Amino acid sequence: MAIRVLLVDDQPLLRTGFRMILEAEQDLAVVGEAGDGLQALEQVRALQPDVVLMDIRMPRMDGVEATRQITGPAKDGPAKVLVLTTFDLDEYVVEALRAGASGFLLKDAPAHELVQAIRVVAAGEAMLAPSITRRLLDKYAGHLPSGEESVPNTLHTLTEREVEVLKLVARGLSNAEIAADLFVSETTVKTHVGHVLTKLGLRDRVQAAVYAYESGLVRPGAQ
């Protein structure tokens, strides 16, 4: 079955360009378009897309709030959000990731990257390297807690090894790099990451990295 995509951007010309790219792929189907966050919420409820390609800065309701409502507890469907941004260090991207987006993509990314990103997000994975997440979070450390706040109770559900893995995920290491650092197999690392996501109620590595910063487990700029 084709991956159902909803295009959300306040520039009709960009939406047309994205539609042309995506409709050239047999496994992707553009089911609708929206010009702002409010329209996006209506379209998500009506069309039940798999992936929402979401612009950040739009009138009436921006992409951050729309993402929060689409992926929040009261969500109406399984839609995952892939954020589009003009700048790779846009402060709003951090907020979108915290709101539940599964990743972000630059608007000037090559067509094949856009297509692959949608496929990755639809499969339930995070569509950006942990190192990029870290760079974003380090850049906008002022928007995050200082780390002096009390540790969330959910963090105590993790084993000592799972906490180690979470720290390394947040610091930008891949599964292979974590395996080398901890002297375990990559399969073992994947298992630990899965346990971390399940115990903390997180969707993917992006949210895990954000959680690690927000909880104070990892400090912005720390090595």
Automatic annotation (TrEMBL):
Keywords: DNA-binding, Phosphoprotein, Transcription, Transcription regulation. InterPro entries: CheY-like_superfamily, NreC/VraR/RcsB-like_REC, Sig_transdc_resp-reg_C-effctor, Sig_transdc_resp-reg_receiver, Tscrpt_reg_LuxR_C, WalR-like. CDD domains: LuxR_C_like, REC_NarL-like. Residues 151-216 form the HTH luxR-type domain. The modification 4-aspartylphosphate is found at residue 55. It comes from the Bacteria. Residues 4-122 form the Response regulatory domain. It holds the Pfam family Response_reg. The keyword Phosphoprotein applies. The keyword Transcription regulation applies. This is Response regulator transcription factor.
